[in-house]
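Continuing the batch. This is chain 6 of the set; chains 1 through 5 are on the previous pages. Same settings as before, nothing changed between runs. Recording input and output for traceability.
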Amino acid sequence: MTPMAIAWPLGSAFAGRYMYRVGAKRTTVIGAILVACATLWLLAVALHSPYWFFVGIMVVMGLGMGYVTTPTTVMIQSAVPWQMRGAATGSNQFSRSLGQTIGVTVFGALFNAGVQDYAARHANGLAGLSSSRLTGILNQLSGGGSATGLSAGLKAFVDQMLAHALHHIFITMFGIGLLTLVVSWFLPSHQKVMEQQKQVA
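Output for chain 6:
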């Protein structure tokens, strides 16, 4: 996550610097395109993808999120009078936190569904693999444990199962990325944002 943590503030800084030159809407669309590209790149991730794949995805995603966050915050603030901008910004932050909470819940449910689906369809070929043992292996891995001690066949099964579950999440993220791009395309133009800012000032 470090590349994203570095790229996000860089994207925000670049967006804030050039937003009034290219326009708030165009800046947001650029960010949405970067986010959509990052989620599309996620779909190309395979079980043995190189490390730089993930670094590149996180950098592109971080830049895109930075480019989206800054201009949308300005748009929200420009839609209300000065005395209401604190409340508007607080509502925006609350909405983001709520979205993150719901997102974690939805993605967690999708991941569990993907794990159960793969296990139900492929676990019969592994002798001695019960649901309780599979749950114990997943708990061990999620707690920072290693896969040492597992047979080669069982390790390959777990790897494929986790990759299958994550791919479901990546597909959902790509859909959300496309939806973000479509929504950003219909945002008010920069000229309208500036006019609104003058009206409520």
